[in-house]
Design brief:
alpha+beta, 50% helix
Length: 134
């Protein structure tokens, strides 16, 4: 597992930011498509009146493609050593080691923030964020 310093995490942001933006966009699209699929299911349950089989198949394909793209983005970020924590907000963590205590911690960044400016313990999560420097 790769460990990041705050400086190294911030150096990753120019390449990471567009990927996380795509991740959030794909998640929103998947939710929108899911709502459309639910609408189709409701129609089918009510006799399937006036459903276009071609449109239904297109919706199914788009949903599957979007889900696959979302999974690929999460995997790509994981290969960089970044942990995706929240698909809706673009929250990611960078594994790190606290320089004072040596304990494992996570450097925390959320889409929209200018830099990696927070950290938290492994069990604390977003609510336990503390400002950097350590």
């Amino acid at each position: 597992m790769r460990l990041f310093t705050p400086e190294e995490a911030n150096e990753e942001l120019p390449g990471l930011r567009p990927r996380v933006e795509r991740l959030v966009e794909r998640r929103r699209e998947l939710l929108r498509l899911g709502a459309q699929v639910d609408g189709v299911r409701s129609k089918i349950g009510g006799n399937g009146g006036r459903l276009d089989p071609g449109a239904v198949e297109k919706l199914r394909r788009r949903s599957a493609e979007t889900a696959a793209e979302l999974a690929a983005l999460v995997e790509e970020l994981g290969e960089l050593g970044v942990q995706v924590k929240d698909l809706d907000t673009g929250l990611v963590d960078f594994p790190a080691q606290h320089p004072g205590t040596g304990e494992a911690v996570l450097l925390c960044w959320q889409l929209g923030e200018a830099e990696v400016g927070h950290w938290h313990g492994l069990e604390e999560g977003f609510a336990g964020r503390k400002a950097l420097p350590f």
